[in-house]
Q: What sequence folds into this?
């Protein structure tokens, strides 16, 4: 699995590419094929790539839409690419269209509901500079990890690993002793789907989307096996 990282500052501060590059260093084992970072204004994304598909090699990420400047980064393997490409009228050869462009087109078409249209493993983030808002999503089984640190109205940072978030000076290193106790007790491990070993870092649960802007963060569950099972 690849590694992804990103920072958004909502208090008027800017993000330097060096900050994102520092977050990628702890994830070098995730991305032996390519590491890249991109920052514009108050947002920056990065990817440590493990290339397992032709489209991953063809499309460098972070991917930026040339007109809207929306920025996308993903750790993904989308199994219904042909269906998505047809529904979104993306007529180029399938291997020429990377997951960044495909996820952006799905988000543009279906908005918050785009995650429920995806089949496969994924964790991704899309930054919209026009609305100063961030959209994140994680696959239904939680195969691809996504952790985050949030200071409402000031800072939102995300990454595949907690070590990447701890590379930021803004993220405290306070230990979550309760989470450690859960890990040591086999009956409790796996019940809590949000906490990490650090008090100031959370996990986005599987089958969840996350909307973040200057006013706060809002999570939504887009799939539930009990609620959404066939009749």
A:
């Amino acid at each position: 699995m690849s590694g992804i990282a990103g920072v958004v500052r909502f208090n008027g501060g800017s993000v330097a590419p060096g900050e994102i590059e520092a977050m990628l260093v702890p994830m070098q084992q995730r991305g032996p094929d390519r590491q890249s970072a991109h920052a514009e204004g108050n947002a920056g994304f990065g990817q440590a790539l493990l290339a397992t598909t032709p489209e991953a090699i063809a499309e460098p990420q972070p991917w930026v839409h040339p007109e809207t400047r929306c920025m996308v980064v993903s750790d993904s393997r989308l199994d219904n690419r042909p269906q998505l490409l047809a529904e979104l009228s993306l007529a180029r050869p399938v291997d020429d269209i990377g997951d960044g462009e495909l996820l952006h087109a799905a988000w543009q078409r279906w908005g918050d509901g785009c995650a429920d249209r995806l089949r496969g493993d994924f964790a991704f983030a899309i930054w919209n500079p026009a609305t100063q808002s961030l959209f994140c999503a994680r696959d239904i089984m939680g195969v691809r990890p996504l952790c985050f640190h949030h200071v409402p109205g000031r800072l939102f940072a995300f990454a595949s690993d907690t070590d990447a978030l701890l590379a930021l000076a803004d993220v405290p290193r306070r230990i979550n002793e309760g989470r450690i106790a859960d890990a040591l007790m086999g009956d409790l491990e796996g019940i809590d789907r949000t906490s990490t070993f650090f008090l100031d870092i959370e996990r986005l649960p599987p089958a969840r989307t996350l909307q973040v802007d200057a006013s706060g963060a809002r999570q939504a569950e887009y799939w539930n096996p009990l609620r959404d099972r066939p009749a």
